[in-house]
Write a structure and sequence with these properties.
Elements lengths: L3 E8 L10 H16 L8 E5 L3 H4 L5 H8 L9 E4 L5 H14 L5 E9 L5 H8 L15 H16 L3 H16 L12 H6 L2 E3 L2 E2 L8 E10 H4 L7 E10 L14 H14 L8 E3 L5 H10 L8 H6 L16 H5 L3 H17 L12 E8 L4 E9 L1
Parallel strand pairs: 2-3, 2-4, 9-10
Antiparallel strand pairs: 1-7, 1-8, 4-7, 5-6, 8-11, 10-11
This protein binds coenzyme A.
The site of coenzyme A (COA) has 16 residues, from helix 5 and helix 6.
Length: about 400
């Protein structure tokens, strides 16, 4: 395997973007990444695109070809592949692009992720997202993702004494980070009282414990690491990539407070990178609901199982903490256009490692991790990145 580096990134604003179409969003993110990398179109060997459910959100399938076409590459006839793994579609697209460069098959690839979720009404968005749960055993009986994560939160509270206030503090922290991110959907600070008094979605998760329904796109350019300096002074190497799966439905797990897919994907990525959790300086994790961030920091090995709540009390995950988590605002405040999320996580870590994250810049960050979950933990992708 060859080493692989990120040489360019591009993100659109996330939000309810009524004036931008699916194809405009991915074209904007892709062209920003190409400009950032300073490559020409003729150097691109392949495209990978993460999109969870364009068929249901905008009635458009055949997304690989569509993206090659709207990016202006159809005349080059380069391979373009759509990748799907529910909310981890973006992370998996990065892994597919990474593998294709690492294998020597391609030298330069564009990996994009996009979702346009707000063209359908709320219930339809909820039902579309619920297609990533088990249709026969969960969705058919009315379980939605807020409902499934609420069960996990309830169990975590029962097992470990985690409190609603601790969950609320995660939303408060991520909104505070979102204020500093010009691409974030929500750029407003909230208080613990706001979170605790917000309308209940699925107990114990209120409106402000949930990531929103969002539109947006993000893209990165991957290149063989030995050629990266030709394009940029600040390449960022992908030193570990891991992927794992688990039962689709929650009821098949021996412990719903642990995402085994995270543990296994992380183990694979740490082993490849030859590092341990304590070596990670900064991470973007999958906080689709506040409880998701607690599970993530526990299962990634940053804190012991059951101590995720205490970590937020002790402020170790804030911007100036021991291990800043979700400096971008996370899915909670930055937004969660599902296919784009995994790419936006990589883009944030690259900005941080290049020292380009402006007001939310973390000091002395050299090694960063991204953690992208599909469904309620049935799939997980972890990447570890390091400044070259
Ligand atoms: N956080 C903060 N504010 C939110 C929000 C969120 N998650 N979701 C909506 N809002 C705000 C909207 O901006 C709007 O504010 P405004 O009145 O000032 O414009 C207001 O709340 C109502 O928005 P609306 O779109 O009507 O909310 P809703 O009740 O239809 O949806 C949720 C709220 C939480 C149900 C929806 O965001 C949701 O389903 N989130 C989870 C998405 C999900 O499951 N993703 C996959 C994870 S695996």
């Amino acid at each position: 395997m060859r080493d692989v580096a990120v040489i360019g990134i591009g993100v659109t604003r996330f939000g309810e973007l009524w004036d931008k179409s699916f194809r405009q969003l991915i074209a904007e993110a892709g062209s920003k990444a190409i400009l950032d990398a300073g490559i020409s179109g003729t150097e691109i060997n392949a495209l990978y695109v993460g999109s969870m459910s364009a068929g249901r959100f905008i009635g458009q399938e055949h997304v690989g070809a569509l993206v090659a076409d709207c990016a202006g590459f159809s005349h080059m006839h380069i391979p373009s592949t759509r990748v799907e793994s529910a909310c981890a579609s973006g992370g998996l697209a990065v892994r597919q692009g990474f593998l294709s460069v690492a294998s020597g098959m391609n030298d330069v690839v564009v990996v994009g992720g996009v979702e346009k979720m707000t063209d359908v009404v709320g219930n339809e968005a909820t039902n579309t997202l619920a297609t990533a749960a088990d249709q026969e055993w969960e969705s058919f009986f009315g379980a939605t993702f807020p409902g499934l994560y609420a069960m996990i939160a309830t169990r975590h509270i029962h097992e470990y004494g985690t409190t609603r206030e601790q969950l609320a503090q995660i939303a408060v922290k991520n909104h505070a980070n979102g204020v500093l991110n010009p691409y974030a959907q929500f750029r407003r600070a909230i208080s613990i009282e706001n979170v605790l008094n917000a309308s209940m979605v699925a107990y114990p998760l209120g409106l402000l414990d949930c990531s929103p329904v969002s539109d947006g796109a993000a893209a990165v350019i991957l290149c063989a690491a030995d050629k990266a300096k030709k394009y940029t002074d600040k390449p960022v190497k992908i030193i570990g990539s891991g992927q794992a799966s688990d039962t689709l439905a929650l009821h098949g797990r021996k412990d719903i407070c642990t995402f085994e897919s995270t543990i296994h994907a992380a183990k694979m990525a740490y082993k490849q990178a030859n590092i341990q959790p304590k070596d990670i300086d900064i991470a973007e994790v999958h906080d689709c609901f506040t409880i998701g961030e607690i599970l993530a920091i526990e299962d990634l090995g940053f804190v012991k199982k059951g101590e995720g709540g205490k970590a937020i009390d002790n402020k170790i995950t804030t911007l100036d903490g021991e291990i800043p988590i979700n400096t971008s605002g996370g899915l909670k405040a930055k937004g969660h256009p599902v296919g784009a999320t995994g790419l936006a996580q990589i883009a944030e870590i690259v900005m941080q490692l290049r020292g380009e994250a402006d007001q939310r810049q973390v000091k002395e960050a050299e090694t960063g991790l991204t953690h992208n979950i599909g469904g309620s933990g049935a799939s997980c992708i972890v990447h570890i990145l390091e400044a070259m």
